[in-house]
Specification:
CATH class of the largest domain: Alpha Beta
CATH superfamily of the largest domain: Periplasmic binding protein-like II
Helix content: 40-55%
Radius of gyration: 21 Å
CATH topology of the largest domain: D-Maltodextrin-Binding Protein, domain 2
Number of strands: 11
Largest sheet: 5 strands, mixed
Shape: globular
Number of helices: 17
Length: 396
């Protein structure tokens, strides 16, 4: 069987260790694995599928799963769940329900996480800037400008997150909206996009965030090329489970902070997100072995210990209990962060699954936000352009 996933070298190492454990217990099974950065993953996966050689086991994201289900590319896992080949008897129902497509499981959550701004603790100390426990978007901009002023001309407060669909979704949800409606249309207006682009335009002009050319380079290679890893920014938006991956690439200590809040009276923007799902190709010749491996990843005690919380906090109650005594300081920080956010009032469940075409919407945001950053489009024109492209991506 073939397994394809996105991630950094640390994830590859843990995944290969898990495969070796599975192969020792299932000596007639051989699994080969490949990994790449998230931004390159979807094109490579599409190429494999178009060539008639889809991987048997596919790491899947909630932003893309509906599209793959619509195309008939993923296996309905209901039979394996009913047979307890994939045992979900003690699984977090919030995670599980949030991963369903048309009421069925086409991928099993490998963990849950919240959105987070991670930051370079050493640079914050060097700048002698105090970080409040919470900040609004405007206050975040001020903090980042102060950091940039204190740290000199080549270090900025934050990466440019104008291209980041996750950050934009938080912004939208804080306004009481959703990225998408239940019938698969856009849940926001072009004016909402303009306010988003305008916010980051102001941060660029105040030197609070990195210049657009630096930002464009940062998203080309996944975690290793991010501005925080390169020492060019203090903050970057990511998902809480990636703290370990960032820390492994940095000599400075990494901290974790809630994303900015909306204005007074705004709603929670963050949500508990399935970090990744493990799906099975509908074309696989190895349904039994593939579904056994999925069940193994989430329930086998040895596999649980190896994978730990690198892909997010596990959904199984037994897995959480098993991991608790052995968590590192940074892993405990992630678990504490998840518990804190869940009680903060700054999160609310995501009720609407991203529709088919959501991946193309994400690419349209990257493309248009960069065009605005480089001055090729105005904020207003860019907002209208992105909105039109996003509607087209959804078939509107």
């Amino acid at each position: 069987m073939q397994l394809f996933f996105w991630g950094a070298a640390a994830r590859d190492k843990l995944t290969r260790q898990t495969i070796q454990l599975f192969e020792k217990k299932h000596t007639d099974v051989k699994i080969t694995s490949q990994f790449t950065a998230f931004d390159a993953y979807w094109n490579k996966l599409s190429t494999q599928i178009a060539g008639g050689t889809p991987p048997d086991l596919i790491q899947m994201d909630m932003r893309y799963i509906a599209e793959y289900v619509k195309k008939g590319l993923l296996l309905d896992l209901s039979s394996a769940i009913s047979a307890k080949t994939i045992d979900l008897s003690d699984f977090d129902q919030t995670l599980l329900t949030g991963s369903l497509v048309n009421g069925k499981s086409y991928g099993i959550p490998l963990g849950g996480n919240y959105q987070a701004f991670i930051y370079d603790k050493d640079l914050v100390a060097q700048a002698k800037v105090t970080l409040p426990d919470t900040f609004t978007w405007d206050e975040f901009g001020t903090v980042c400008a102060n950091l940039a002023k204190a740290l000199g001309p080549n270090i900025f407060g934050t990466g440019d997150e104008s291209t980041n669909i996750t950050a934009f979704e938080i912004w939208i949800r804080q306004r009481g909206l959703d990225l998408y409606t239940a019938d698969g249309k856009l849940g926001f207006k072009a004016d909402d996009v303009a306010s988003w682009f305008s916010y980051w335009d102001k941060l660029r002009k105040s030197k609070a965030c990195v210049p657009i050319d630096v930002a464009a380079e940062a998203i080309t290679g996944g975690t290793p090329t991010t501005n925080i890893v390169k020492g060019k920014a203090v903050f970057t938006l990511t998902l809480s489970n990636l703290v370990d991956a960032f820390q492994a690439l940095m000599q400075h200590k990494v901290g974790i902070h809630m994303t900015p809040t909306g204005a007074q009276g705004s709603q929670g923007g963050m949500y508990l997100k399935t970090s990744q799902l493990m799906s099975v190709s509908s074309k696989t010749k190895y349904v039994d072995d593939a579904t056994k491996f999925v069940g193994f990843m989430i329930n086998d005690p040895e596999a649980v210990k190896v994978l730990s919380v690198e892909r997010g906090v596990p959904g199984s109650a037994k897995a959480k209990e098993l991991l608790a005594p052995s968590l590192t300081d940074s892993q405990k920080m992630v678990v504490d962060y998840i518990n804190m956010v869940s009680k903060s009032g700054q999160s609310r469940p995501k009720q609407i699954l991203d529709p088919s075409g959501a991946g193309a919407v994400e690419q349209a945001l990257i493309r248009t936000a960069q065009a605005v950053g480089f001055g090729k489009q105005t904020v207003t024109n860019g907002a209208q352009s992105f909105y039109a492209d996003a509607q087209k991506a959804l078939g509107g």
